[in-house]
Amino acid sequence: MDKLCITGGQPLKGTITISGAKNAALPLMCAAILAPGTLTLTRVPDLRDVASLRGVLGALGVTTDYDPASKKMVLDAATISSTVAPYELVRKMRASVLVLGPLAARMGEARVSLPGGCAIGARPVDLHLEGLKQLGAEIDIDEGYIVAKAPQGLKGNDVHFAKVSVGATENLLMAATLAKGTTVLHNAAREPEIIDLGNCLIAMGAKISGLGTARIVIEGVTELKAAHHSVIGDRIEAGTFAIAAAMTDGDVLLDGANIDHLTALVHPLHLAGVDMIAENGSAIRVRRARKTLRGVDVMTEPYPGFPTDMQAQLMALLTVAEGAGMVSETVFENRFMHVPELIRMGANITVHGHSALVRGVKRLKGAHVMATDLRASVSLVLAGLVAEGETQVHRIYHLERGYEDIVGKLGGVGAHLRRTTDDDA
Ligand code: UD1
User: Fold this and answer.
1) Cβ of 125 less than 6 Å from ligand 1
2) Structural contact between residues 365 and 387, judged by C-beta atoms closer than 8 angstroms
3) Residues 237, 149 share a domain
4) Which tens digit of pLDDT belongs to each residue from 367-383?
């Protein structure tokens, strides 16, 4: 296992190129299952999660040719040779459950392992299953597998989600494209990644309206066809590097980032004393507007609210801001695993239920810390960038699930960090 060694204190300066969004690329890859033609995706990030999903798709008979240099992936689902997504592959990544809707829609059957437990809470899939039942699928759980059957095909219907879920919205959006008749998704998630998925499905021949709203209407078609699609920029990666620039008192241009997807971050960062300004339509410049950072309060919510995937990073910023800030997590339970690690670096944080009170300290000190999940681990990297001395972040495979070439990207704007083998892990 590898670790990341970071020597803090360097202000980040320069340009960082933002990769394609992981959370858009994964559902887009699953959409390939729906059509017998090829789906060509560009700007697909070279990430461990993408590799895991290629494994799942491969088990179904979908070929995925990927060129990490050009970031182009050609997916060919001419023949689906199996409708089983096995446990060994699905357990590596929860998003694998997104093959369920497309398989049920195109093949009339699917057997997909339940994703199982997850470090950031129970994360059930009940909303995905309830939705598919509404479209006429018969759903059973058998030996840890979800078994979906719809031998006569899925039928359009009204689906009311009891809770806003990104994954359930995506699964149902894909499934409904091939259902007979009209499906209306109520209380749908509104994330830019869902709009991106919808746009790709439309390019494949799907009939969809209401993307980006809580009511999405899908008119089923009998077949989808080949298409080309470019993945949107990763707003979470961009937001993470924006916070890195702010914490280190740097000046960074995030090339390929869309500020419209980051409004929920722009406001709290502005209050904290940081400017995020759109440049040339497809870049964002980030630097401090004031000498010192100030504490702010944020609460995570579904889009367009403050993203839960930015919570740990904002908390890292608050640890070195003047005054206090409150971070409330409403999307996931148990998503404060970075807190004890940040405390090891000298942060002053008190957790009360779903809220964490962060009182800023003058400086953090480098320490050995343990990555627990994707966003938690990047918050430790951010803290390491401003800590005195060396921080060693262990178990960085979590980072590689979602951050493409983080060492190269941060090193390219002046951070002192290196990756080495971790003999102690
Ligand atoms: C997606 C993102 C993840 C992000 C999350 C919330 C991907 C690949 N992952 O995850 O990075 O943190 O959205 O923005 O896009 N829930 C249920 N029943 C369900 C489904 C979800 O109760 O059937 C709950 C979850 O436990 C959670 C909440 O709903 O509390 C939101 O989860 P959801 O939006 O589904 O997250 P994911 O799609 O898994």
Assistant:
1) yes
2) yes
3) no
4) 999 988 888 899 999 99
